[in-house]
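Entry 14. Ran structure prediction on the chain below.
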Amino acid sequence: MTKRAKLLISLFLTGVLATLSISFSYAADEQIESFYSEIEVNTDGTIEVKETIQYNFQDLPNKHGIYRYLDYKRENQEGKKYVLSTTVLSVTDENGNSYQYDESKKGDYIRLKIGNPDKTITGIHTYIINYEVSGAFTYFSDHDEFYWNINGTEWPVPIKKVEGDVTLPGSIPSNKIQVVCYEGSYGSSYKTCSTYIGDNDARAVSSRAFSSGENLSIAVSFPKGYVSELKAKRDTSGFLEIIFMILVVIFGLFWYIFVPLKVFQNWNKDRKNTKQKQRIVAAWFQPPEFARKKFTPAETGLVLDKITDHKEVTATLIDLAQRGYLKIIQEKKNKFKFEKLKEFKTGGNIEKYEVTLLEGIFGDSKEADLKKLKNSASFHTKIKEFQKQLEEKVMDMMMFEKKPSSVDANNILLGVAGFFIPNPFLIFTALALGRKSAKRTDTGIEKYSEAKSLLNFLKSQDEQLDFQAKNQMFFEKLLPYATVFGVEDVWAKRFSDLKFKPSDWYEGDLSNAAMYTAFSRSFGSSVRTATGPTSTTSSSGFSSGFSGGGGFSGGGGGGGGGGSW
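Output, structure tokens:
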């Protein structure tokens, strides 16, 4: 055998052994068996993401779970960063059992540390992560677009298969939907992945196993009018931007001082007038009255803080349930349904704004799902009517000289004018004080004092009545008022030793005060989500995910990465 032949055989055997060595090493390392993302697009411009990650830990020692880094910031073509509002809803296994996890922010990511530090695991485990995102869309003049990184480029382990499924709202024909995908490391424009289009549905699937740092991105284009414009907010956390804003505020102090001081003077005058004439006591446990009729929780809340928001809605629903108009049914955490118990007409024992709220919830039905109301345009219209009618009722009782919403609108106009003048101090003063500048009448100050006294009683742990901690009826009577004030947790602590009997107005577990606290938090959060605004904003400079806009892997929103620990 010649030396040349021996050399070739030697090189061949070395290559074979090296390949086998790499294969065995790869087999021994952890990897993701599959990464499947289901994305549901809501009409209000939000998305709900469900990620199913099958993670193979092999037989590696001292493993407890995984990290998941959710990228909640997005950079446009101009290099400006925008924040995608991201809320983690749940982390479970394939059987719906909740995982222990810690949530924190690290740089541009929300970090989820999933697993039990006191328990080690091996083999394949499934992690299902549900979260909601606002600001994930790009709005063009002739179409809307969803551009999303499915798994992200920050995974240090290989992934065998990646798939993303996007479900659109309404009834969009497949010929009106366009989809493109990219796979590879960050910046890759390879379209070797597969795409599928159906009615209201678009999907992308990776063509091969991914190495560490590779990602699948999907861009879906569809006609305008199916989702509200809910754009991402500008990220102002950068140091230079903060310095710039401070300099602008300082500069504004020397310009256009009169108008800002006038706004401040209006607010300060009401504050001083209220302080001089108020008569607040510590143990007043009755709501205000007008014409021998007690204020509802919503009226009391508006008189106190001049604001109508989700707390008025939550408190009104609990109050109406206690009065027998509906039953609140809690099937599980953050999942509520309503059952209509009797007809409601304006007059007598029910206010016009309360009827409007009930009409918005039930319509012609006898049951309603709180979560589904979030995407109901008619419900959001009724919420606005509820707020308007509530304020009109309080004005009829002569609580304010002008409507708080009108004062707020005027101050917003002044703040907007400050952008064009420009006058940052005016912007800050007008927008910060807003409704707070609304002046109370003498009657309004009197009722404010009574509302404030009730608040002091509800939140104070120093003075208690002898009978209150033994009286469930007394607790439930004031619960809607504690809710509208935001002190329901403190109020419930007074009744920590009381065992509660089942209530007619609620179906679920309310056996003790702690359960009431959990219910109030969960119900309030769900109402806040359902009544959240759907806003329209202008373009933020994001490019298209399609070829004309320079799409690539990692160029959309979302993504991030992860690892094990």
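Confidence is low (pLDDT under 50) at residues 1-27, 534-539. Will compare against last week's run tomorrow.
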